[in-house]
User: What shape does this take?
Amino acid sequence: MFERPGYDTMKNKDRGGLVPPLSVRAGKENIEMTKHSCIEEIQEEYVMTKTKDAFYSQIWKLVLPILIQNLLSSMVSSADVIMLSAVDQDSISAVSLASQYANILFSVFYGLGTGITMLCAQYYGKKDMKAINVVQGIAMRFSMMFCTAFALCAAIFPKQMMWLFTKNERLIELGADYLRVISISYFCWGIIEVYLAVLRSVERVAICSVLNIMTFVLNVCLNAVFIYGLFGAPRLGVLGVAIATSTSRVIELIGCFVVSSFSKDVKLKLSYMFIKNKVLFKDFVRLSLPALGNDIVWGVAFSMYAAIIGNISDDAVAANAVAVVVRNFGTIFCYGIASAGGVLIGKIIGENDLEGARSGAKKMMKLTVISGIVGGIIVLAASPAVLWYSATFSGLTPTALGYLKWMLIINSYYISGTAVNTSLIAGIFRAGGDSKFGFICDTIDMWCYAIPLGLLAAFVFKWPVMVVYFLLCTDEFVKWPWVIKHYKSGKWLNNITRDDWGIE
Assistant: This one.
């Protein structure tokens, strides 16, 4: 009485059975297609989830060792400041100002390291280790050139270099003594930074952490010996810090050669400097020089900030020395993400997975925003303890303590701006071979906006110290609109590797 749904009741003589109508057959085909489509979507979603999880797991594997390196670097600076606080405020101020030249040199190394990462990370994704060795040699040539220039200036003209930051005769004398000794370490430092940049580019970050731990422990121990005169050594104060730093860098370089001797593919060989390859040299210059210029512009600008503050107030210099140490701890996570993300995204681009790189950049930005907020909270949370210690043990004057209080508050929000810009300019953009944008952006922002504004505020309008400091710390937020717009455009995403680099 009731017919089976979807079936015709007419007999088919040839087939001897019930025949489904055309509409039903089409429906069955649609069901099959839908089923296959759902399976494909599920599979695609599964792959994307795995890729997402893989990106986060990979970036954390890189971030954690880099965090350790950044933490140790900050702790070295902190150890110098903390240990010198037992001497006097002038010692802290002198080393802080003299270290501005080391900061500029570090900017050079960071720029070269970024150029190394841009090329080496992508060639690592391509599995081309020979190209990596050639790039290492090119970077080392540039590094030695800058190290020679800085070492000669620090050894021959130390007082003139200090005079740019302060007119206080005692600070000039102390700083000059520091520069003469520390100049010896610049050559070791240049080789170390190039080799460590190569290791980070090929994801050997754990080795870098071990070397940094060794250097930190050694530096702190030698600081204690030469500052306080332990084990019969003379009490050398500022000079002791310079000796400790120089000695620890020599030993770190020896450690790099030891690591190299056990490595199968990433060697530290000075002979690499003499390898000539026009193609990779042009690529390195084209990509690295804007990054190098960017970091020099950035580093010199920060030294100008210190010079402006130093020519206003000696108390502000001492306060800023402590504030910078605290800020460095707050930015550790931010810089770790920028470095790790740059390596990982560069590798993905070298594998020619541009969409994967774009997706990774989005995930990296989420982590960056979180890191900036966390860094600001760390600075605010640490402020009471820092102020108590500075008031109790460091010998800062009441005026310097007042400056320090407000500097810590300003730096708590400054970190957010730094986090976003560093991750984008020094991490994501450079991973994609785009180093020109950051150079242009930072040059305009710092040298056409922040420094002129600081000079006018300090020496023309003669505004209070903390107003000048606040204005200098607006530089990171002024460039946000352009940086974010460039990120969204996708113009930074490029595969910069070559198949024919060995053909000249």
User: Anything to note?
Assistant: The chain has one domain: 65-489. The longest strand covers residues 11-12. The two ends are 87 Å apart (CA to CA).
